[in-house]
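ARCHIVE CARD
SHELF: 3
SLOT: left
DATA:
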Amino acid sequence: MRPAVALVCALRFASIGLVLGLPARAAAQSAPLELTWQGPRGCDRAGYVRERVARLLGSGARKSDSPLRARVAVHEDAAGRFSADLETETAYGVGRKRLEGESCDAIALAVAVVLALAVAPDAELELEAEPEPDPDFALATEPARPLSDREALREPLRPRQPRPPRASAYLQASGGVLFSLLSEPSTYIAFGVGTRYRRFSLEITGAAHRTHSLYLSERAGAGAELELFSARLLGCFTVLPYELTPFDACAGPQLENLTATAFGVTDPDSGSVLLVSGVLALRARLRATSWLSAALDVGVAARAFHPTFVLQGVGDVFEVPTLSPFIATGLNAEF
């Protein structure tokens, strides 16, 4: 049995048993069609469906005083597939069915076949025959033409082509805690942007840390206020590409601008130092939706240069450590 004939048979039984739910005595009568069509832009096929129903039934279709009212709502998803919610109403009841297809034309033809079989279940549908190929022009490029009935009926049966991968951008906002660098664990907030392609991503992030006051034990009331700002460039690779909870390994450079201002002395001094460090981090992402995920980062910043911070009139404030562990959590919005 050819695919087109098999699909017509399937739609015949669906139209009788699922769409209309009509009793056997009602199937014996044909009825005029009243059609309401709602669809996305470029998919208005109401006139086509009415004309196709008439052509499928041929000239032998009979009319009755009991109309067949049909409402069709067509939707297109992000992948370009179409679906239609078909609702029919007659004097004998209401029926509903959902149809799916690869194009608006395929959906329109499927709706036409279902409605034609609903109008006249015993009618012999007149499908267009496929044109015979012309051997003299077999290698020529054919111009675009409307799909025939058989082509449109076969179209939903073709496998979907996979969409090529593409790069996506994302925004992130996070809060975290940095250990060891300042006088006590330092909380911070960070914002960043990034781009992701397959299992690779590249992001840049800026962070502002809470101001800390450091008091010197040998001089009562004297100390320094510490301010820290940092910028980080990370490249990440998804080592465990789980659908719900992927895990990334990240590495990259970081710049830290540390400023200290003395207080509690006659002539307070201030100074700053720019630190360069390397960052290693592990990241776990929990997907909430297709575009939103929560992230947890655990990592460490390592510095080859770690000087002692000295302020005039105060003395040694503190020594910059070699390693500073950190932990952060936040949200990533991908688009």
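SLOT: right
DATA:
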Amino acid sequence: MYLKNIYLPKMEEIYKQYLQYDFNNSDEYKEFKDKFPLAQNETIEDHHKRFYKSHICRDFDVNYKPPQSSNSTNHNSHARNNNAQRNRIPNTNKPPLFEIIDFGILGLSFLILPISLNNYLFVLIIYFIYRLNFSVGVPAFNLEYLKSIIHQNYFSYLILSLILWVTGTKNLLFVVPLIINTGFYLIKGINKYIKSNLCDKIIGFNALINDWSLYAEICNLISPIIGLFMGTNRFYFFFIYLQYIKFRYYASEEIRDKINAIRVQLEVTRTNSNNPMLRGLASIIQKIGNTVSQSFLGGNVVMVNGGIMACNIF
């Protein structure tokens, strides 16, 4: 009974925050909807709850039912009416100020990229700070707000941009995932107001482009070593980047899923392939990944029931 008395007030507050979340104007929810469309027999409300738990608040209980009272009933009906009114507002071709600034900063970054990588990273830092400001709502000094920031891709990319900019790293391999993500977002924004068959075709490869970006991040595990021999990053950058990788794997469920998929494929290749060269290559990659994981990362981190357990990368 004591635990229940603690749980209910907390969930009531979290549920109120969930009701106040503006799904219609959330770019994160739009991206989530593109990647994870409605499942069979899943309602829009179930879809909202699934997104809110995975991207906004991991303590959110999708099965929670608020106490039935006149106040809560009125509040829910009022929220539904507001959502219905927003849904009835027709879309216009005039982009709001937020998107004008958003696409403007991104467009400027791509103009600067061929001229100066350092200045490109600086503009990206401004961009990701701007995006975070509008992605996680009003700042609050609580654990839920901190979690919502940590699990945002924008926050991870902000940290990476800061590391590259402060250390003066010129290794273009680290910038590839940033270019893919921001470039694809810019294309979607342009296509929203200026329809183009080419943009439509590119957007049709949404899932594939997202996979390329994630695999590029994973391949960047060896980029500090390559950059050290090519003189594009300093020797100490290797240790700084490994700490970023550790955080990135904790913060991104998509990265962990891709790592698990690679691990399974390597094991299948090592045990079932008839080609001895492929078996040997898979074994070597597994050993390298496990060595890096155990020596520097403490193992790849995986969320289990809200906690963390360590396991090998490959």
